[in-house]
Amino acid sequence: MKTKDRISATLPDYIIQEIERCGALLELTKAEYLTAIAKKWFADGTPPVTPEEIILRKQAEKQPKISPQKKMI
Question: Mean pLDDT for each consecutive 10-residue tract of the chain (73 residues)?
Answer without folding.
Answer: 82 98 98 96 97 95 75 56
